[in-house]
Amino acid sequence: MRIGEIAALVGVTSRAVRHYHHIGLLPEPARRANGYRAYTVRDAVLLARIRRLTEIGLSLDEVRDVLADDAGRELVEVLGELDADLARQEREIRERREVLAALLEAPLTSDGPLSPALAALLESAPATGSPAAAKDREHLALLDTAGGGAGAELYAALRPLAEAPGVGALYERLDELAGAGVDDPRIAPLAAELVTAVPDEVLAVIPDGEPSPTGFGRVLLEDYPPAQREVVRRVMEALAVRVRATRGRTG
């Protein structure tokens, strides 16, 4: 059989066959004198097995494990992992649909759609025209989306802070640093007061390794002008120290 014939027989494309050759999944057959590959029934059986395994959801690396010799994993082991992964995906989809159902029941806001927990937090915060406060809302909305609803406990813990009467003044002081440099003398005292304002209940629900000026924290820092960025960076570092202290760690 030539490549087009074996591809048609098994129900794949010639391009797929060539790709399997290229990655070493399907051994190259012997070639005739005219240079064409000469496929056998054994090649067709192997190609059909590759197709079946990919159709049930295995990656090509997992297919390679199944087809490997004694050093490879047993098919039942790979299928068991696939079943567990599918169960995880089903659970995540179900949880996301539950969140979506709650969102559909609530009125949408200009920040939305938001999770019920974040919507409740923002509703509890006093109205303000502070640009820094608006930026915080945007960051929380981003966390709400990127975190897959994982911030519900954090939002609940932040509520007393959001309702605290002195928070508005802290935002105003942060706004005043919008055009300042990183050597502005107002940076250090403002950062210290912001750290002090965060209650221990918030620290208890911050994930390990956070807050950190990397990952999500890095994205937030880049959204601030220099002086404000320095304030937020110092707050992150100080809160990280407090988190480690509350959890009995020093490193």
Would you write up a description of this structure?
The chain has 251 residues and is mainly α. Helix content is 64%, strand content 0%. It contains 13 helices and no strands. Helix 1 (3-10) crosses helix 3, helix 6 (116-124) packs parallel to helix 8 and helix 9 (167-175) packs antiparallel against helix 10. The model has no long low-confidence stretch (mean pLDDT 82).
Key descriptive features of the protein:
13 helices; 0% strand
Short description:
The protein is 64% helix and 0% strand. It has 251 residues and is mainly α.
Helices and strands in order, then pairings?
Elements: H1 3-10, H2 14-22, H3 41-55, H4 60-67, H5 75-105, H6 116-124, H7 131-146, H8 152-163, H9 167-175, H10 187-197, H11 200-204, H12 216-221, H13 226-246
The N- to C-terminal Cα distance equals 65 Å
Tell me what portion of residues adopts beta-strand conformation.
under 5%
Give the integer mean of the pLDDT values: 82
Number of strands: 0
Seen as an oligomer or otherwise, the chain set is single chain
**Uncertain spans:** none
**Overall radius of gyration:** 28 Å
Structural class: mainly alpha
Question: What is the 3D shape?
Answer: elongated
Order of helices and strands: HHHHHHHHHHHHH
Report the major sheet.
none
In helices, the fraction of residues equals: 55-70%
* Number of helices in the DSSP assignment: 13
